[in-house]
Amino acid sequence: MKSTHSLRVSAARRSPASGRRLLVTLCGVCLVSLAACSRHDSAPAGMQMPAAEVGVLTVAPQHIVMTTELSGRLSSLKVSDVRPQIGGIVQKRLFVEGSDVKAGQVLYQIDPASYQATYDQARGTLAKARATLASARTKADRYVDLVKIKAVSQQDYDDAVAAVNEDAADVVADEASLESARVNLDRTRITAPISGRIGASSVTEGALVTSEQTTALATIQGFDQMYLDVTRSSSEWLALRKALASGKLKRAGDNGAVVSLELEDGTAYAHTGTLQFSGITVDTTTGSVTLRAIFPNPERDLLPGMFVRAKLDEGVDESAMLVPQIAVTRGSDNHASVYVVDASSKVTQVSVKADTAYGDQWIVTEGLHAGDRVVVSGLQSVHVGAPVKVVDDGKGAVSGASAASAAAPRAQQ
Predict the structure, then answer these.
(1) Average pLDDT for the chain
(2) 104 lies in some domain
(3) Lower CB density within 10 Å: C or N end of the chain?
């Protein structure tokens, strides 16, 4: 009872001005509501919301070159370690470190004295053996007539013939010894096995070298051609081979895929290379395939170990369907779809297969046909089955967009 009485007293104490303000506010709200109802009742029956404005792209088959960008380090196609094949003291080093050398050029001179003596001895032994053979042949020839008149016995004749054969064998052996001595004498002059640029020497004059040593005297690297090893997954490689075999993709070159290089400073290398398809194996640990590209290097701009980016022109697709990546939506299951405007200017949703990127576009392999109008702008306001108003038709921009994206590498899957 006391609480009720207190509320009544509080209400009675409110000022008259406060009550009037409340009444004015309530009256304003009522008038606004009545005006809104009056406008709604006066609108013509059956009026619809205006159609959403969208931009579309009319798709058409296009000619594109499939490319992939991969990176790696260059290596010389020819590399040779210079090693001694005999032992001895190095008398001279006959090259400048870091210079270009030619195949057959003398690089080191080993003391030839002992090998020259062995050669001279073998030559003398061979001369003696040849003289002995000549004497034995003369004796055997004389015995041919004597044995006929019984001047010598048949046994003496047979012994003379045997002596000729024995001396002939000695000559063959001595000739081999002389050739071996000549080879060893020649090996005292260590020559370059290939043409290229030679590195630092590991020995100087006066050093003792042996044929069994593991340390190379120097290393020569050929600069005429360089190679780059890059890797791709075996699944991508199989897909490429199948596409080329079926004719869907055409080879970009007569000898295989064409490869272009971008150097470390971002500049393009002037010469293109060729991707070698032979000698391919799959790494069992990574499931990747190593591909080797070979590049000419006439100006010596490429160096071993240089980091480069390679763009592989894998093939040509004569009828690719391209749509901007912004036009493709994907669900939680990664299923791709696009919105298409039909002949009645209504929106339909079409499922597509778009797994390969080409620059800023997707290559659609299933779901679209030439002439389909794909919604590329105004996507936030479209709904399936709703009418739309096309305000921008990208028919004329198809070829231009394709040309702009043709230089962009295809992203790896």
Answers:
(1) 82
(2) no
(3) N
* Total tally of structural domains belonging to the chain: 2
User: Does 261 have pLDDT greater than 80?
Assistant: yes
Q: Same domain for 228 and 330? A: yes
Angle between helices 113-148 and 154-186 (to 10 degrees): 160
- The SS3 call for residue 292 is strand
Model confidence pLDDT, tens digit, residues 204-234: 999 999 999 999 999 999 999 999 988 888 8
- pTM score > 0.90 for this model? no
* E strand or H helix that includes residue 358: strand 356-358
Final residue of a structural domain among 187, 213, 240: 187
High-pLDDT (> 90) share of the chain, %: 51
**Token pair of 266, please?**
């971002």
Does any domain span residue 305? Answer: yes
Give residue 337's domain range. Answer: 62-75+224-406
Q: Is 1 exposed, middle or buried (0-12, 13-18, 19+ CB in 10 A)?
A: exposed
Closest to 375 (Cα-Cα) out of 386, 318, 353, 50: 386
210-214 long-range contacts (CB < 8 A, ≥24 apart) are 210/84, 210/87, 211/83, 211/84, 211/85, 211/86, 211/87, 213/83, 213/84
- Using the 3D structure, point to which of 187, 208, 243 is the last residue of a domain: 187
Give the confidence band of 74 by pLDDT, cuts at 50, 70, 90: very high
The residue assigned the tokens 């199989």 is 238
Q: Are strands 52-58 and 388-393 parallel, antiparallel or unpaired?
A: parallel
Q: Does an H or E element contain 274, and which?
A: strand 273-276
Domain check: are 67 and 134 in the same one?
A: no
Residue 341 falls within a domain, yes or no? yes
> Per-residue pLDDT tens for 102-153?
999 999 999 999 999 999 999 999 999 999 999 999 999 999 989 999 899 9
Indicate if the pLDDT at residue 163 is higher than 90: yes
Report the alpha-carbon distance of residue 58 to residue 375 in Å, rounded. Answer: 9
Whether residues 250 and 373 fall in one domain: yes
Contact 110, 86 (CB under 8 A): yes
- Same-domain check for residues 390 and 267: yes
